[in-house]
Amino acid sequence: INESKRAHNMTTHDYAIGLPRQPDMSDETLQKASWLGYRWFIGEEFDVFDVKLPDFTITRPVTMTKLRSIVARLYDPLGIVAELTLELRYLMRRLTKAGYGNAPSNAKGEILNDDDADAAIDTITWCDNILKSDRVWAPRYTPLDTIYAFADASEASIGIDIRTIDGVRLVARMTTVPGGSIPRRELESIRLLLVTLQDILRAARGSVHNCIILGDSSITLFRIKALLRDPTCKKVVSLPRPERRRLDQIYNMVRQMRIDDPHLTISFCHIRSMYNLADRLTRPRSLYDPSNTPTWTVVKNELNEPSLVAFKVNEFLRFEDDEVIDTLSDSLSSDASPMGVYPKE
């Protein structure tokens, strides 16, 4: 924290900065503001923020137009409540696949039948109850010396969840775009994770010293390990082009992160699925019991146990590998289909 720039929370005690808290709304000294589209609350014991509470009121008849309007009201670019965003996206995706919509190709039209309307209202009500519950809010200042980055993928979604050493969520993102095999989607989750990590590292300006990337796919981690050891090895070159392109992007991003900050330590580790926090962002509550989500203390204890796959990028990646990268890129280009267009994945 730059003390010379603490213009808005000078009354906050030092010990309270960086701690997740539930603000005391009865505090007479409470300050309220808007920060990057979020609600910001400052007091002597807290400096926290949360999403702005959307109006999730819905009446019958339930139509797709009403649902689209409600879903668009939740603004959460950092993914503070990413689990709710997943529920809403999954709801709209399921209804669209069922044939609802105002397009001529949508057989069921705009108005939902009773069963689907009940399910939609249940999802909206569940999200509204979570938003209005006594949740612990995220602190505006967080330590960035060590960050843990979780990635996972399923047929329903690809998700990432980036945490601080104290378990505070920095960023969470997911995509519900369908298609591709699970191994390919697992690679895509790592690629999406690295894109987000690059943004964090640029903004942190050298504050991050250790970055631990965690996933529950041992196949994906072994492929990345083989890639870092030798980008031209048979295990990499023999893969289908979609996987090779993603591995090529992963290699280039990891290498660029090392070049931008030579003192940064990047590690890849395997973690069991039940402790992978990104797993919650790949399955809606109909396929996952939220009560089974482990606490950060339990996850940290698991991280201290021996891992099936664990390696440091610093042990493999050398800065003199420019010719290797050029060779790999040429290999990928030579395998492309005519006119440089790849076949549909």
From TrEMBL:
Pfam families: Peptidase_A17. This is Uncharacterized protein. It comes from Perkinsus chesapeaki (Clam parasite).
